[in-house]
Structures are given as structure tokens and as C-alpha cells.
Amino acid sequence: MIGLVVVSHSAKLAEGVRELAQQMTQHSVPIAAAGGIDDPENPIGTDPMQVMAAIESVYSDDGVVVLMDLGSAIMSAEMAMEFLTPEQQQHIHLCEAPLVEGALAAAVQINAGGDIALIMSEARHALAPKQKQLAHAIDTPAEPAVTSSSNTVGGETLTVTIPNKLGLHARPAARLVSLAGQFNATLTLKHGTETVNARSITQVNTLGARHGDELTFIATGADATAALKAVQALVDNNFGDRDDSPNGTTPTAERPTIAGDLPDNVIVGIPASNGIAIGTARHLQAQTPEIETRTVENTDSESKRLSTAVIAGVDDLKHVIANTKRKVGADEAGIFEAHQLILQDPDLTDAAHNTIHHNKHNAEAAWWSAVEAMAARYRNINDAYMQARADDVLDVGRRVLRHLAPEQVASLSFDEPCILLAKDLSPSDTAQLDPENVLGIVTAEGGATGHSAIIARGLGIPAIVGAGTGLQLINSGTEIAVDGQKGFVWQAPSAVQLTQLQSEQSAWQQQQQELRESSRKPAITRDGKNIEIAANIGTPKQVSGLLDAGAEGIGLFRTELLFMDRAQAPTEDEQYDAYTQAAQALNGGPVIIRTLDVGGDKPISYITFDHEENPFLGHRGIRYWLENTDLAKTQLRAVCRASAKHNIKLMFPMVGTLDEVQQARALLAEVQSALKSENIAYDTDMEVGIMIEVPAAVMNATQLAQHVDFFSVGTNDLTQYVMAADRGNPKVKALVSPFQPAVLHALRQITAAAKDAGIWTGMCGEMAGNPLATDLLVGLGFDELSMNAPAIAEVKAKIRTIDSVKARGIAAHALTLDSADAVTAYLKGSNDDER
Ligand code: PEP
Ligand code: MG
Fold it and tell me: Core-most of 43, 239, 424, 618, by most CB within 10 Å?
């Protein structure tokens, strides 16, 4: 008889569905549940081994239908298949039907003796009765907020233009592939004439899609609309990229041109990570083991050996990701998240398994030939950045190889400080290096955009790549110096050269120290007024490096990003963890959490918004939030719990009326009293503020100020609403300037009302990070400015040059001017005078 397997992240859910299906079929159908993982602390998840065991327990040659809930459940089911023999695999059918309804329909049909095609079809259409019954309750579906979308016979489509500067490079591609994995829908991606599977990292990467290119996504399956909405949200979020260069320190990717003769003992490479290191050379031997091809008889067991090594590789990567996040940074850890996707790419694993079965090759040889073929695909892309990704594929390949042939593992720990010389260094190897012992890195191959170069920069190790074969002539033990900014390697420098290098090294170290110190110094005007400088973030991942960038707190945590790019809303615990993580990273500095600010203009895949003619004037921000009390209370509980031990403040967006403030405060009081009765701690004095971004709030500022602890001005929205000009429409760009006189008058009204009520005023719109506006904002009386991290050092430096009496004069004069251009010209002039 055909068997049924129910796979869910929750053991209880899987078991519950099994029980229900068995009851409906009087226990006559073989049904197995594979839910949760074997970790009492964190039992939610899916485990390929468990799925495989469940399949085997109901397996017969009649076939097995497998139903899964979301995301990794699908990946686990696919991986479980790899453990089965090809013969067995032919009888397993992964079905994209909804879990509960699908399982019941499938079980009933199995019991009735239907064949596989009928069972699958019944399961897929299992939602139809419910949809028919509730047709009256189904709202007109919201138009997905897409650049262009349509329903075609082949599925729903979405066409977008790539917004981020670097295009669909490794990390945005990884984000897209992870997102695709969260939906049951089949998602393909068309770029020009090529169409690829959006779940294959290699296929997506090798598209070579760049900024401005058009992409068409085609989704088929039950949750196709939701998948496309999530893709749109990811695109709107710039594919998760920040287009600003982190600190301007990324070295040029070119080999430097040299003016004049260089001494004979200098090798020139490509600058990859700034800084000067002087130390003893140490060669690192090649990391790729020699692979022998053997013929095997038992191809099934060889295939299993490979699957086990791949799973071990995925496990390793989990540790590397956690360590890299701790030691280097979340952005750099993203490199290894992409490695995980490469490792789970069916293009790679299928190719290796096929070689085992068809050519009867041993696992090592089959694996390595698949890895090399995939690396070659990257090398053939006409884009230097993507070509460098071939190294990532090889790195991933070596990781698995180490599990297949452990004797080949090389150690990367050094007893003595040294400068490492290598043909090339994988990102994994680089991430393992200890900057205490590895003073510098020089590689013969590689480019400055290679991931090992990025990690070296994150670790602060001076590095040069692409220095050529001349490196082999340097003996281990020779004294060398590395200038990571110029790209020079000095072999056995003379006494004169050494003195010069040492003095450049200490000047460089001092400069770095000063930069670090000055960005961390407070922003105090010449006459002693302290302006608090904070950062805007969207996810806790962005907190790494904020303190070094000079942030004293977080002035705007845009929580909607926690809700995007996923299949369901984050739980209270997930939100609590995110808020706590951000607060911990700020070492006691204040963290202002803005409640979910969504609406028709900021779509979230699993929230259905009614179609609105004018989403910017519609059901967004606090308007939506107040009407979705379950979601609002979950968020408030998480914020309040985080406030027990951290300096947390709460802020409501898009407030227009006093009634909204009162309703929001009432909800907060309700949540706080529930927490109290549950004996859960929270900060009873947590400050509660509002964003001022709606003209009504400006006009009502005097009244609103009586009911809140602070104002934070969102100039992005305030400008668009004051000027009635869409902030995203280039045609009205000139109107959307915060230097418009009307906006300046609004700002003055806000700070005046706050001052009268004795509350403080901040600004978290983009204007806060514009150094041209700094005098004006100080003069208008802002107490806090919150901005994107890269802007902080310059704004702080600017504040230190300001005298607040003079700044008040600048603000007063700016308020007399009659156009945005006149204000801008005046501020530029007064800036030049200060210099
Ligand atoms: C603003 O409107 O200025 C603001 C900071 O909010 P957002 O940009 O998230 O709408
Ligand atoms: Mg806003």
C-alpha cells in the first residue's frame, strides 16, 4: 500500500496531523510523522535522518507520498531522498500540497486505492472545499506590490529591476535562494534568455545579473502569490544590501601602478587589506588533497558516504557561521551562509551522485569532479566578482573532502607570530586565522574582492593578494614586510628600509587609533551642548561595528525588516531575542524600537493588505498596527520583556491623532499588566515616544507632547506629506527636500512644542545624517540625531566644530529663506565659512 509521511518543524504538529489522518482512515493507511529535531532546548526544526527513517518505516514499492510544512522541511525531505537508493527514490513523491488538508485528502485517497497521480492531485486541491465555503469571507485579494505581475498558464510572474549597486552577487543571491526555500511554490527566474531554478545558488549566481537588469520570477504552486510578494519585498529592500561602502577602506581591486623604480627586494601584488605588518614568512602548503579515482562496486553505499560527508559539511558551516559572527562580523558570516547554500545546491550534489552511480567512481573523485565543474562555471562568467566565487565553490568542496578523507586535513594554528604566504587561501581558512599570530597575509593568486580578502579586512590583518609566483622564492623563516595599502611585499628589508617601514607602521597604527577614538568621542558643540548620536538599523545583524562607528545608541530600529523575507511573523521570543541582541551590542546605550510600520507601500508576504488607491495615505503604520491587536501585543510583550534588563524605548510611527497615542498606550498598559500578573519583569519607566512624520502631528505637537516622553522626526515621510510629493517618485524629487522652507518651519514648530512640554526631540529621517544640515538641526534645538552608521563619524566631527549660539543664528536665517535651493546654498556657504 502507498505510504504517507508528514514532515513538520513541530513534532506535535506532525504527530497531530498523522493522528487525524489515521482516524479518518481507521488506521488502515501506513502514515509516519517526522517532526521537530532532537534538541530539548530548541526542538523546532527538521532533520533529514528522521525524515529518511519515517519514509523507510512506511516504504513499499507502491510508493510513498511526503508532505512538508515550510522552508527547511522541504530541504530535509530532499536530503533524506539522497540517503535512499536510486531504486527507492523513484517511488518517493514530494508533494507541495498544504500540510493538514493535503495529508487528510491523500490519506483518504490512499485508503480508497487511488494511484499516485490521483493522490497527489487530491492533496494539491485539498484547499478547494474550504475556499468555496469561505468565499464570502475572502477579501478581494490585494494587488501584489510588484513592478509588474500577472497570472499566466505557466504560473504567476513578477518582473523587477535589480536595484542594488552590485547586482545579484553572492550575498543577495543567497538571500533570494534562502527565501525561495521557504515556500512550497516552484520559483524560476528569467534573465534575458536564460531561465534558472531560484533554489539553486549556482544557477542564480551564474546568471551574472547586474544592477538595472530586468528579472522575471515565475511561481507555480499553492503559495505562489505569497512567494512573489516576498520576492518583491526583498527587491524593495535592495536585496538586503547596503549600497554605502562600509567605511571607505575597501582597497582598490587593481595592482597599483608604480611611479619610479622599486627596490629589487619588493614584490608587487594587489592591496587587499590595509596596514603594515613586519614578521617572519611562513608558507602554507596547498590545501587541496590529491584525489585518486577508484572504481567501486557498491555505488549505493558510496553515495551514502557522500551524503553523510555533505551533512557533516553543513554542520561544520553552522559552527563557522557562529564563530565568524562573533569574531569578525555578521556581514562576513554571510559568506559562509552562502557556502551552505552552495553545499545544498542540487546542481552540485546531483552531479556527484550521478557520477558515483553511472561511472562507479569513488565518492571523493565524484565529488571533486562535480566541484571543479561548478567552479569552472563561475570562472566562465564575464564578471570579476563572480569569477572570484569559484574559490568559494572549491572551499566548500574541500570542506566535504575533509570528511571523506580526514587524513588530508592541514592545521592552521601557528605557535609563533608569522606572515602567511600561500598560493591561495580559502575564506574558511582565513576565518580560522588568529590575528595575534598571523600578522599579515600574502597570496600568489586571488583578487581584492575575493572573500578571503573581505575576511582579512574584517579581522584587521594586512593582506596582499595576487602577488604572483615570485612568492615561492621567499623561504619560510625570512623576515618580510607587507604594506597592505600599497600592495608591496618587502623581502629581507635592509636596515634603512626596515626603519622606514617601522615608522610608517607606527604612523598608521596611530592614525587608526585616532580614527577609532574620535568616532567614539561624544558629539559636543564648542560651547558644551551634547548631541546624542545614534544609528538606524533594520535587523540585529546591523549592530556589529556600530560602537566603533561611533553610535551611542540606536535611534530607530525599523522592526518591519524582522517581519520581511520570511513566511510568517516572528514569534514573541524571536523578537525578544532580536531586541535584546541589539541592546546588548550597544553596551547600555538606548535602543528605540519602532513598532511595526507596514502598509500597502511596505508589503509583507504573509499579510494581506486590501488594495488601496493611495497606500501612502492608507492603512499603514500605527493605523494598521492598532487594528491587529494580536500582532501588536506580541510585539509589545517582546519589547517590554527586553526592557527589563536593557535601555529600551518604544516609539510609534505615523501618528496623526491624540486618539492613536491613547489607544497605543492603553494596549501597552494592558500588556504590562498581563506581564505583571505572570510575574514577568519589564521596565515600568520605559520611555514612550512618537515619530512626527504626519503634518497633523506637527500641528498638534503641543497637545501630543503632553502624552509622550519624546518626539523623533521622520523627515522622509514628513517631507513627502508636507510637500504632497511621493518620496519615491523621481519626477517630484526637487519637492521632496527637507530643506524646503515649509519643512523647516514644521521642524521649528516641533522642537518648540517639545521644549515647552519639557520633552526631548530627536530626528531619525535621512536629514539627520546629512552634515550640511547639522548646524541647522543643532540651531533648531534637536537633542538627538539618528542616522545610518557610515555617516556618524562625519556628523560627530561637524558638531564638534559648531557653536550653538551661531547655529541658532544659522537656523533663524535659514527660516527666512524662500526656497530649498536658497537654503541649500546658504548652508553650503556657512559651512565653507566655518572651514
Ligand atoms: C521617516 O519617515 O523619516 C522614517 C525614518 O521612517 P521610514 O523611512 O522608515 O518610513
Ligand atoms: Mg516614516
Answer: 239
User: What's the pLDDT tens digit per position in 569-628?
Assistant: 999 999 999 999 999 999 899 999 999 998 755 667 787 777 778 888 988 899 999 999
- Residue 713 alpha carbon, nearest atom of ligand 1: 3
Distance between CA atoms of residues 72 and 8, nearest Å: 9
Query: Which amino acid belongs to residue 450?
Result: G
Range with lowest mean pLDDT among 307-316, 716-725, 747-756? 307-316
**Across the chain, which distance is largest between two alpha carbons, in Å?**
91
What atom in ligand 1 is closest to the CA of residue 716? 3
Query: Alpha carbon of 625 to those of 571, 585, 621, 634, 777: distances in Å?
Result: 16, 28, 6, 11, 31
Q: Look at the alpha carbons of 263, 266, 270, 274 in this order and tell me if their dihedral is positive or negative.
A: negative
- Asked if residue 587 lies in contact with residue 571, where contact means CB atoms within 8 angstroms, the answer is no
User: Would the CB of 601 count as within 6 Å of ligand 1?
Assistant: no
Strand 186-191 vs strand 214-220: parallel, antiparallel, or unpaired? Answer: antiparallel
Asked if residue 767 has its Cβ within 6 Å of ligand 1, the reply is no
603 lines ligand 1 (CB under 6 A): no
Catalytic residue flag (residue 764): yes
pLDDT band at residue 451 using 50, 70 and 90 as cut-offs? low
Close Cβ partners of 715 (under 8 Å, ≥ 6 residues apart): 693, 738, 743, 747, 763, 765, 766, 767, 768
The residues whose Cβ lies within 5 A of ligand 2, an ion, are: 693, 714, 717
The reported pTM is: 0.50
Query: Which residue has the CA at smallest separation from atom 9 of ligand 1?
Result: 558
Q: Model confidence over 82-131: pLDDT tens digits? A: 778 888 888 999 998 899 989 988 888 887 787 888 788 788 877 777 76
Atom of ligand 1 nearest to the CA of 602: 10
pLDDT value at position 142? Answer: 36
**Whether pLDDT at 358 is above 50:** yes
Q: How far is the CA of 716 from the centre of ligand 1 (A)?
A: 5
Higher pLDDT, 236 or 667: 667
Q: How far is CA 610 from CA 144, 159, 752, 768, in A?
A: 10, 22, 38, 34
451 is catalytic: yes
